[in-house]
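FORM 12-B: Structure-to-Sequence Request
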Protein backbone atom coordinates (compact mmCIF):
# COMPACT_ATOMS: atom_id res chain seq x y z
CA UNK A 1 0.00 0.00 0.00
CA UNK A 2 2.70 2.52 0.91
CA UNK A 3 4.62 1.64 -2.28
CA UNK A 4 1.60 2.55 -4.37
CA UNK A 5 1.15 5.85 -2.56
CA UNK A 6 4.84 6.65 -2.99
CA UNK A 7 4.71 5.79 -6.70
CA UNK A 8 1.71 8.03 -7.38
CA UNK A 9 3.03 10.82 -5.16
CA UNK A 10 6.36 10.87 -6.98
CA UNK A 11 4.64 10.75 -10.36
CA UNK A 12 2.32 13.62 -9.43
CA UNK A 13 5.22 15.71 -8.13
CA UNK A 14 7.21 15.08 -11.31
CA UNK A 15 4.29 16.24 -13.43
CA UNK A 16 3.78 19.37 -11.34
CA UNK A 17 7.49 20.20 -11.42
CA UNK A 18 7.52 19.74 -15.20
CA UNK A 19 4.59 22.17 -15.47
CA UNK A 20 6.45 24.66 -13.24
CA UNK A 21 9.52 24.33 -15.46
CA UNK A 22 7.38 25.05 -18.52
CA UNK A 23 5.95 28.19 -16.92
CA UNK A 24 9.41 29.34 -15.80
CA UNK A 25 10.72 28.83 -19.33
CA UNK A 26 7.88 30.94 -20.69
CA UNK A 27 8.80 33.70 -18.21
CA UNK A 28 12.46 33.35 -19.18
CA UNK A 29 11.77 33.68 -22.91
CA UNK A 30 8.96 36.25 -22.94
CA UNK A 31 9.74 38.30 -19.86
CA UNK A 32 9.18 41.97 -20.62
CA UNK A 33 12.19 43.12 -18.58
CA UNK A 34 15.57 41.69 -17.66
CA UNK A 35 14.50 41.36 -14.03
CA UNK A 36 11.59 39.15 -15.06
CA UNK A 37 13.96 36.96 -17.05
CA UNK A 38 16.24 36.57 -14.03
CA UNK A 39 13.28 35.56 -11.87
CA UNK A 40 12.31 33.04 -14.56
CA UNK A 41 15.86 31.70 -14.56
CA UNK A 42 15.84 31.37 -10.77
CA UNK A 43 12.54 29.52 -10.87
CA UNK A 44 13.83 27.28 -13.64
CA UNK A 45 16.97 26.15 -11.85
CA UNK A 46 15.17 25.66 -8.54
CA UNK A 47 12.48 23.48 -10.12
CA UNK A 48 15.17 21.58 -12.04
CA UNK A 49 16.98 20.96 -8.78
CA UNK A 50 13.77 19.71 -7.16
CA UNK A 51 13.05 17.50 -10.16
CA UNK A 52 16.48 15.91 -9.80
CA UNK A 53 15.75 15.24 -6.13
CA UNK A 54 12.45 13.57 -7.03
CA UNK A 55 14.25 11.49 -9.67
CA UNK A 56 16.70 10.46 -6.95
CA UNK A 57 13.85 9.37 -4.70
CA UNK A 58 12.32 7.37 -7.53
CA UNK A 59 15.59 5.74 -8.61
CA UNK A 60 16.90 5.20 -5.09
CA UNK A 61 20.39 6.46 -5.89
CA UNK A 62 22.43 9.36 -4.52
CA UNK A 63 23.78 10.45 -7.90
CA UNK A 64 20.77 12.68 -8.52
CA UNK A 65 21.14 14.32 -5.12
CA UNK A 66 24.73 15.27 -5.92
CA UNK A 67 23.67 16.66 -9.30
CA UNK A 68 20.94 18.70 -7.57
CA UNK A 69 23.54 20.12 -5.19
CA UNK A 70 25.74 21.21 -8.10
CA UNK A 71 22.76 22.77 -9.89
CA UNK A 72 21.82 24.66 -6.74
CA UNK A 73 25.31 26.03 -6.20
CA UNK A 74 25.88 27.05 -9.82
CA UNK A 75 22.41 28.53 -10.16
CA UNK A 76 22.86 30.64 -7.04
CA UNK A 77 26.22 31.95 -8.22
CA UNK A 78 24.86 32.80 -11.66
CA UNK A 79 21.91 34.63 -10.10
CA UNK A 80 24.32 36.73 -8.04
CA UNK A 81 26.40 37.49 -11.14
CA UNK A 82 23.34 38.50 -13.17
CA UNK A 83 22.02 40.72 -10.39
CA UNK A 84 25.40 42.41 -10.05
CA UNK A 85 25.55 42.91 -13.80
CA UNK A 86 22.12 44.54 -13.84
CA UNK A 87 22.96 46.86 -10.97
CA UNK A 88 26.47 47.95 -11.99
CA UNK A 89 26.86 46.99 -15.63
CA UNK A 90 29.88 44.79 -14.94
CA UNK A 91 30.52 41.57 -13.09
CA UNK A 92 34.22 41.84 -12.34
CA UNK A 93 35.41 45.12 -10.88
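FORM 12-B RESPONSE
SEQUENCE OUT:
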Amino acid sequence: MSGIVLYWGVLFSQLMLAAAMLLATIRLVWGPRAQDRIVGFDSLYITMMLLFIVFGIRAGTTLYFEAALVIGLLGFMSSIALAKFLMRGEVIE
